[in-house]
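ENTRY TYPE: protein
CONTENTS: sequence, structure tokens:
***
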Amino acid sequence: MLTTLLLAPLIAAAVAFDGPLPVFSELGLSEAAVKQAFFTPSKDDIYSACESNLLNEAQQKFNSELGINTDFTWRNASSLAYAVNKLINAGADGMVKVCNARRDYVGVLLASYPFCVNRFYLLEQGGTDFNNAVTYVHLYKHLEFMCSTGFDVYQYNLPCIVGVTAHDDTYNACFYKFQQTIQNYPNMLCQASQTLVLCLENIFASACGMQTGWVECEMERLGYAYDCNGLQC
């Protein structure tokens, strides 16, 4: 473990994100590790109440409003997430545009939103894998927070946030440590997630202020809260 901690900053390039929304698939985890880590559904999980036609309509609306290729769906979630990050990276106007599109996406799905944005429902449809399904759900979980509770902080501090994600090796090192833990010990998802969110909080609090540290921690916490409901910032 000590060796991993010492090497993480040096080989963090193995995990490098380009934008304020971390793209889960960029962790480069094996499908076997992801499946083992994320295999167990919540005891309250219901994922049969999503209509595929409605999800397709919502996705088409989201993509069209943002000028994103309408072929990008949950089946190629990485491409979708990269396109969204590119818009947010361009500045606050891009972020507002993304949040408006996210609002309209939810407006189409309404009460079925939590059932559609669910990895087990997506997997049930076929033609995808755990990496894709988790990446898609994480994207919309991140947007849930960025476009609501965290909106003002993100809008005000976006240049600093983008600067950290683009240039701070310690940011990538947080994810590298998470990657190494999950790849080798998939059953330690919750412990690794708690370490990750606190690592991110410390980095952003130092670089961009305490409020930004908290929102970055909270955004990433929500990405893993479905599986680890005891995570704290």
Observations:
- Confidence is low (pLDDT under 50) at residues 1-13.
- The chain has two domains: 43-148, 157-233.
- Residues 56 and 85 are 21 Å apart (CA to CA).
